[in-house]
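[job 4417] fold queue: 2 targets
>>> target A
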Amino acid sequence: MASDENKARRRRQIAEAVWRLAAREGLEAVTLRQVADEAGVSMRLVQYYFGNRTALLLAALEILNEEAETTAQQRIGALGDDLPARELVRAILMELLPLDEERRRRYVVQTAYFVRFLTDPQLQEVARTADPALESLLASILSADPTVKSDDTFADAELLIAFAFGLQAEMLLNQVDEPHALHLLNRLLDRVLGTAP
């Protein structure tokens, strides 16, 4: 058990180094050597845990996303078990916005990944074939609420997520502040789900 915990801790240490480099410099020129230096470990150790550069980048992103999902579930769970569909959807979409320093740092890193995915065919294929889990989750919430009038809940879920990601970019660039972002989010929810009671 201890060895599994040590392995997970070491993998996270190296992943954190990738995140720091991504936030500072982007991922275009990041090498295994740079990651090793940033993490304070040998390059052989990086290769032992992750193999090649592509595997390292993907694993670091997966760790980032898993931790983000865990944090989001805890934050949304703290709101209670009986949230109306609209409020649950709103809470999920708010997790896609840089509303605190932790989320802002995460989305800066993910933006660096986005640029890398644009230029790497192998990574593009991973993105293209990714499971639309978030879209499916939102669609299931919308479908289960009889007050939601929608002829295509999956398309509405895609619309809401695309909007949130666009808003995320504008907030990272300081083009939209938090109060206005939440105002826009509420307006879109009114249009997709109907006006809030």
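>>> target B
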Amino acid sequence: MPRIPAKKTSEAGLFLKLAYRIARRRFGAVPEPMAVTAHHSGLLRTYLVHELLAERASKKLPANVRELAVYRVATRIGCSWCVDFGTMLQKHEGLDIERLTKIDDYATSPAFSRPERLALAYADAMSADQVSVTDEQVAELEREFGRDGLLELTYQIALENSRARMNSALGLVDQGFTSGEACRVPLP
């Protein structure tokens, strides 16, 4: 149970009802972080616009690399909501979610490619208690993904750190997106 209850549709104004409807259509349920943030209308608008713009701008990296790095952050921070939602997003992208069980062994597991390993190690370095990114790591990532790809990866990892830490602080836990309890959106 979240530390702050979700704002109910019955308490919502026109904008929030529309936002909830769009979220339900897209994800099968209103994501709890959105419904909790809805208590602060200015932050909700900021949150929604930021998420949409970040999603639209993030097209340089292969989806598997981006989504694995974001998922890794969620597991490192311990945000069960983010793990649940991230697994559902990967499933809808048509990515292999079975290998997520091997994420802790990414450095040696044949389930992950070299570019994925580089991104996962970067996510670890950015998500540690103290950031431990090296110049060599950044240079290697830039060679692998180009400058735009490196910036996108950095941004997405930092964004997931923010999401995961906020959700964890607010007591948000998995919502059933992976199990299908929350998400009734059919796979593409």
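[job 4417] complete. Note on B: The chain has seven helices and no strands.
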